[in-house]
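Hypothesis: this fold can be encoded by more than one sequence.
Test: take the structure tokens below, design a sequence, compare later.
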């Protein structure tokens, strides 16, 4: 029977649902007030650090097994599970009582575990389902268009969530709005505390509904009937072995790990950097929204580069942008220091696009979700490792600063240590990049992959 290819990849239901899932799953209204929200609930900074560690550890432990499960019991099933976990984790947060701090902490531990499980279950499964749906019903070369549109819509959703969540959490601003509207309401922090969470609960329910609307691609659904969960760990080891035996895939993951770990570490410290370059704290949420707008522009540029330039050329361009941004940030120019920061942070969109494009192109359907989960595992391990190294660096610099600049105290010493630490990032990145290039040249010495661009076919595992 002759297959009718849709005129547009967005005519395929799973493609539209994949984009909607990414938007709803990631547009969380509490993001702009994430750290202070936990503290306003009554937790301490130490407890907040423990909760972050629990969340990261859960993702690392569940990342690869969840991808292998997606390749055995079905990608849609894992996405439904992710949507269900999101609903439960946000429901706990929305209705947990605040009068018992010990109970509150353990409920938040459960919340972070469920959140990590949801992240791990969604990672790889959503992309694998969309890619295989496009492969079955459309033209696989349209994947770049799908990625471009997905990142654009996700960025738009992030802008809305960042802006609205920050506004609705501010009791002073909300009081001004209600007074202007003639409403005789008294708005306090207690009133606005859970508003971003309630909004996120709505998106969580919509996320679950979106996953229930998805359909397993025909080829994988047929394979699923003969597969069993007992094959999960065999598939995990097979996919891991394949990654290390496929030089191009390994180099793509290692390049993504380097960029993601360095840029994400600096991004997590963005508020401290903004403060030191004299940016008012009231603008931090707006800057986050402005950064998300890059996600509307950059994917189109990245798609053109992926179609007409080699992976090596694209790596060189993004590396130059990232290194320029890091060097510029070391000068801490008042206000103008925003430019190198935004330049550096924009590379996250390039890297996200390129890694997805090259990995999906190089991986076969039977292990796609598992390979993508390995990518997530590598990235999270890289981020954790650089976090440990950064903590050691801060301790070393603080000791040195206290020794040679004893007149500095309190915030002054904290700011000086931060400034001194920033200078280490360009050097670390340059050395690691040189090592990556050396390894890549050796690993790819007999491969034609770095010279291929548009029109490539999938590699056979």
């Amino acid at each position: 029977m002759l297959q009718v290819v849709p005129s547009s990849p967005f005519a395929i239901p799973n493609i539209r649902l994949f984009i909607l899932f990414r938007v709803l799953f990631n547009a969380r209204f509490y993001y702009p007030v994430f750290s202070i929200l936990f503290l306003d609930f009554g937790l301490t900074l130490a407890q907040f650090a423990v909760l972050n560690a629990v969340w990261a550890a859960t993702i690392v432990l569940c990342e690869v097994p969840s991808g292998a499960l997606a390749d055995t019991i079905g990608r849609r099933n894992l996405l439904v599970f992710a949507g269900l976990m999101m609903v439960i984790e946000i429901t706990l947060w929305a209705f947990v009582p605040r009068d018992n701090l010990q109970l509150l902490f353990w409920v938040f531990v459960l919340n972070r575990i469920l959140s990590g499980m949801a992240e791990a279950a969604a990672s790889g499964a959503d992309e694998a389902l969309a890619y295989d749906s496009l492969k079955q019903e459309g033209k696989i070369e349209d994947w770049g268009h799908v990625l471009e549109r997905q990142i654009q819509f996700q960025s738009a959703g992030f802008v809305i969530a960042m802006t609205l969540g920050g506004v609705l959490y501010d009791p002073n601003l909300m009081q001004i709005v209600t007074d202007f509207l003639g409403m005789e309401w008294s708005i306090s922090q207690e009133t606005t505390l859970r508003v971003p969470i309630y909004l996120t609960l709505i998106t969580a329910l919509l996320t679950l509904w979106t996953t229930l609307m998805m359909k397993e691609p025909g080829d994988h659904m047929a394979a699923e009937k003969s597969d069993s969960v007992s094959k999960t760990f065999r598939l995990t080891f097979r996919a891991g072995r394949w990654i290390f035996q496929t030089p191009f895939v390994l180099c793509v993951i290692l390049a993504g790990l380097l960029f993601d770990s360095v840029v994400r570490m600096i991004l997590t410290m963005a508020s401290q950097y903004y403060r030191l370059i004299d940016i008012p704290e009231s603008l931090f949420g707006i800057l986050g929204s402005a950064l998300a707008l890059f996600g509307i522009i950059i994917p189109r540029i990245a798609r053109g580069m992926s179609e007409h330039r080699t992976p090596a050329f694209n790596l060189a361009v993004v590396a130059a942008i990232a290194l320029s941004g890091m060097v510029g940030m070391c000068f801490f120019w008042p206000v103008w220091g925003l430019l190198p920061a935004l330049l550096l942070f924009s590379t996250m969109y390039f890297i996200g696009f390129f890694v997805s494009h090259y990995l999906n192109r190089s991986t076969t359907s039977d292990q796609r979700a598992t390979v993508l989960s390995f990518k997530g595992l590598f990235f999270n391990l890289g981020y954790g490792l650089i976090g440990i190294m950064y903590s050691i660096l801060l301790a070393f610099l603080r000791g040195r600063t206290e020794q040679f600049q004893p007149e500095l105290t309190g915030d002054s010493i904290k700011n000086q240590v931060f400034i001194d630490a920033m200078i280490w990032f360009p050097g670390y990145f340059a050395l690691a990049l040189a090592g990556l290039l050396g390894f890549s040249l050796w690993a790819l010495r007999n491969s034609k992959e770095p010279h291929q661009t548009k029109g490539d076919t999938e590699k056979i595992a």
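The radius of gyration is 23 Å. The chain has two domains: 7-227, 232-461.
Hypothesis status: open.
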